[in-house]
Amino acid sequence: MTALRRFFILLVVFAGFAPNLASAVQPDEILGDSKLEARARRISVGLRCLVCQNESIDDSNAELARDLRLLVRERLKAGDSDTQVRDFLVRRYGNFILLKPPFDWETALLWGSPALLFAAGAIPLLLGLRRRRQSPPPDPLSPAECDRLASVLNGDIPSE
Question: Is the full-model pTM beyond 0.85?
């Protein structure tokens, strides 16, 4: 096996582990109970960092994200279910804290905007195609115009 081939195999193997290495959870935050820790990770992956806004609190190094990770773990240690922890955070921070907010009246525009943008682009396009089909075909060339065109294409007469 060549060195280059081994390098690419190792690259693929390490790329598979990369999402796990990106976690910002500090060792002092990790719970002793592995089941509770797994639940905390499942919850925190779905929660938005309010500072970074495009990262989960599990991936963010912001202080607020750390505080939220600790809050999730405290609530789990107190005996709350996963749903109770999420509901507590949504009551406190609103649906914005969820990376995937639920579909309801408050978020309908957020979820419907891709369809609205698609329709805003597709409707003029369809109307233009329809108008093009309904317009009459152009008038055919007269015999004089056909002769002139043929002579220009043959190179007999220079084009103007």
Answer: no
